[in-house]
Design brief:
heterodimer, A: 181 residues, mainly alpha, 75% helix, B: 229 residues, 0% strand
Chain lengths: 181, 229
């Protein structure tokens, strides 16, 4: 109910309401993009919000639908930016310093020495892209299985299986890091 | 599934090299995905992972809100085109607020007028039968077929249609029309008031000399006469 009222005010031009939505969603968007598009996460986030602003008055739906819409935009912007960079750049990744989505085993082990949120994000980045993206969309973005399935173009069963596989791997890494409650 | 591979000599005594605990079952994984708390007897790795997954949805770190200024500027430009000054923006906001208030006031006024008009129509007895019946129950308006003041008498009575005041007087005198057994007026002698027997010359109780009506009184009575006739 609170989000619906805030969204309505933002659609009416209330800057404070839009700022509240931004502060609520931007952290999770950045965390998602730092795994999906680590090189240009901030740029992609900015372009995502520009498109959200442009389409805000035409949006209809609840908070879940808004997040699904926003993260769909983010995925498309990340894919567009990745294609554009691939067309422009010919420098090998090693010399450019660009990090791969799948970190090297040594880097993953180092990241696991002290498991924190950042380390967990790094661990997620070690997963296959499909598993990493699905876990981020389910856990970080808070979307449900059907929304994620629609976004990634898979069935809900396939999304669930991919998420389970990724979580099992993360659970093993968490245990190896020796973190206890 | 296999964890990042530990060699067998690195984990002596472990029954299954590379396995740290039995494979988690799917309900636990679904609970992890849904952000639900795990049971205390869940594997340690799962419990730790649950704790840190919850941290992924935590509020923003200071560095995660960079870009807010640029985004809000873009929002302002989208709402207010380039060239409008802050004063114009404030005026536009006030106009929007005033328009909204005026619309609300207008809607309330219309609602009040409709309510008053409906109430007046109900008391005048001009609503459709169903609505008049509803009004009769809700606000004690005259029932369908009745009118409170000033109109022709439409009450339903057994017998012929009432023709007019003169006929009414003659009926009361018992010389015309159907006599309803429940109507005690037929027991009254012609020419006498119902329920009283008076002798010639006897004044009515309380009927004393009347003060001569003042001009104002005459005017007042004259005003009321069409209504009470």
């Amino acid at each position: 109910m609170a989000f619906a009222a805030t969204l309505t005010r933002a659609q009416g031009g209330d800057e404070a309401a839009f700022a509240a939505i931004f502060r609520d969603v931007q952290p999770v968007l950045l965390r998602y993009l730092r795994v999906i598009s680590p090189i240009a996460a901030d740029d992609v986030a900015g372009e995502t919000w520009l498109q959200v602003v442009a389409g805000l008055t035409g949006f209809r739906g609840d908070e879940r639908a808004f997040r699904a819409w926003l993260f769909t935009i983010a995925r498309h912007r990340a894919a567009d930016l990745g294609r554009a960079r691939a067309r422009r750049q010919t420098v090998p990744l090693e010399s450019s310093g660009a990090s791969e989505l799948r970190l090297s085993p040594d880097a993953a082990d180092i990241a696991l020495e002290q498991l924190s949120t950042r380390a967990l994000m790094a661990s997620i980045a070690t997963l296959p892209r499909e598993q990493a993206e699905i876990i981020l969309l389910r856990v970080v973005a808070g979307l449900d299985t059907s929304d994620v399935a629609r976004m990634v173009g898979k069935t809900t069963g396939a999304v669930r299986v991919a998420a389970h596989r990724g979580l099992r791997r993360l659970a093993v890494l968490a245990d190896r890091a020796g973190v206890t409650l | 599934m296999s964890p990042r591979d530990a060699l067998s000599y690195e984990m002596p005594g472990f029954p299954l090299p590379g396995w740290l605990w039995p494979e988690p079952d799917e309900p636990l994984l679904d609970m992890l995905l849904a952000g639900q708390p795990l049971p205390l007897n869940a594997p340690q790795g799962m419990l730790a992972l649950a704790d840190h997954l919850a941290g992924l949805a935590a509020p923003a770190d200071p560095g995660e809100l960079t870009g807010e200024t640029a985004v809000l500027s873009a929002f302002s430009r989208a709402v207010f085109p380039v060239g409008t000054s802050p004063r114009h923006r404030a005026q536009a906001r006030r106009r929007r607020s005033l328009t909204t208030s005026r619309c609300k006031l207008g809607a309330m006024l219309i609602a009040v007028l409709i309510a008053l008009g409906s109430t007046a129509a109900a008391y005048a007895g001009v609503l459709p039968a169903a609505l008049q019946k509803l009004a009769h129950r809700a606000i004690d308006a005259p029932a369908a077929g009745q009118v409170a003041i000033g109109g022709p008498a439409l009450s339903q009575q057994a017998g012929p249609t009432r023709a007019g005041p003169a006929t009414e007087h003659i009926r009361h005198a018992g010389m015309l029309g159907h006599r309803d057994h429940n109507d005690r007026r037929h027991l009254v002698r012609p020419g006498k008031s119902a329920g009283r027997t008076r002798y010639r010359g006897q004044r009515r109780p309380g009927h004393g000399r009347r003060k001569p009506a003042s001009h104002a009184d005459r005017r007042g009575i004259g005003w009321l006469a069409p209504l009470i006739r």
